[in-house]
């Protein structure tokens, strides 16, 4: 099954400084049919106005991945971590027993991010945060794992979840494959571009939910940047 969830049909809210669209139920947006996708709980498409952002707030027992599409996001937390993550790069926060953090767009341009929450397989661990640059050239023409809790993905940012975040940058006309192990699901969103997956068309920011499919074949109809979460 491959189901396209058009961006225009997503719920969300506009707070002035934040324009948020939600692929799953979140905050004031409730959809009983879209509570999660396997262990994937949240996929928010956030546009953050210049010199604004999320003030300090707490999290517990959740793996939170931020994929920066445009601009940059600056993180600070009560563990003393502080860092700036730029477009194309990823940061991971394992909330564990509890962490309080802020996320600000300190830039002069709008920052656009995907914020992805995955339910952990390990609870009660110490909180942590990390970021890593992933030049887009490294993922040109195929999927590269950026964050993972799967043992074989040792080079990726670690998360405490049976999940993998991968991304691919495809030129128009270029193709790539991604294989899902039996029983696993995928959810994918293009940061930009248009493409087909197993012959089904999707556009930038559409959600695509996948289950009971072992080989995903992608072809870009225009230059595309595709982000994929593989979950149990």
Shape: globular
Span from first to last CA? 16 Å
Largest sheet: 7 strands, mixed
* Overall SS class: mainly beta
Within the largest sheet, what's the order of strands? 1-20-17-22-15-13-14
Proportion of residues in β-strands: over 45%
Indicate the mean pLDDT.
Answer: 96
Number of helices: 0
Q: What integer value in Å does the Rg equal?
A: 17 Å
Runs in which pLDDT lies below 50 for 5 or more consecutive residues are none
Helix content: under 10%
Total number of beta strands: 22
Order of helices and strands: EEEEEEEEEEEEEEEEEEEEEE
Q: How would you characterize this protein structure?
A:
The protein has 232 residues and is mostly beta strands. Helices cover 0% and strands 56% of the residues. The protein contains no helices and 22 strands. The strands form 4 sheets. The protein has a 7-stranded mixed beta sheet with strand order 1-20-17-22-15-13-14, with no helix packed on it. It is globular and about 45 Å long. The two termini are 16 Å apart. 41% of the residues are buried. The mean pLDDT is 96.
